[in-house]
Amino acid sequence: MAEGETQSPGPKKCGPYISSVTSRSVNLMIRGVVLFFIGVFLALVLNLLQIQRNVTLFPPDVIASIFSSAWWVPPCCGTASAVIGLLYPCIDRHLGEPHKFKREWSSVMRCVAVFVGINHASAKVDFDNNIQLSLTLAALSIGLWWTFDRSRSGFGLGIGIAFLATLVTQLLVYNGVYQYTSPDFLYVRSWLPCIFFAGGITMGNIGRQLAMSSHGTPRSSGNVCSTKL
């Protein structure tokens, strides 16, 4: 190499802010943490409604002081919420069907409010029998999906979540971890899958919105990171 020649510098790296924001692992972790705490909060509030109306009964020795809920309920619901919220946008991406129906935070907040209302109705509204209550909650849950989701992947994941969550709940009640008053669907209430379905749709909408918000962050461009020769 000639003495007068200088080695051409390599590509200049962007600043640490851009590299950290665009890091997929960091983005995934942040969304997971947010979804976890949202799930914990909703679990504390909604489980309080069920306990106050004696819909669910926990043994006295496992009741914690926070919102009179068993200690393991909030972290389990938070973990499930994080998995569901991260799974929905991942499935959308793999199917090549990005969900764009009502993608704004105001719609997500209304979806959360409707879900809380459905759960509140399961504990507060008195029907002649559980069949009427189950049919009403099923109609409300499907209405929630139609109003705020309308995707085939969302409906399919909601059904799968409702099935798995109901199965796990059946096993917990069977092993005496807690119990439901007046069970009419093996060991649980027949309307429980409707609550799980609505909860899956709700957390999926939150996860999709978080994913869309994170993808909207500024990314590096050739003009920003390029250097003058």
From TrEMBL:
Membrane topology classification: Multi-pass membrane protein
Main location: endoplasmic reticulum
UniProt KW tRNA-binding keyword: no
Keywords annotated in UniProt: Cholesterol metabolism, Endoplasmic reticulum, Lipid metabolism, Lipid-binding, Membrane, Steroid metabolism, Sterol metabolism, Transmembrane, Transmembrane helix
Pfam families given in the database record: INSIG
Family: Belongs to the INSIG family.
Complex and partners: Interacts with SCAP; interaction is direct and only takes place in the presence of sterols; it prevents interaction between SCAP and the coat protein complex II (COPII). Associates with the SCAP-SREBP complex (composed of SCAP and SREBF1/SREBP1 or SREBF2/SREBP2); association is mediated via its interaction with SCAP and only takes place in the presence of sterols. Interacts with RNF139. Interacts with RNF145.
Stated name of the protein: Insulin-induced gene protein
Species of origin: Physeter macrocephalus
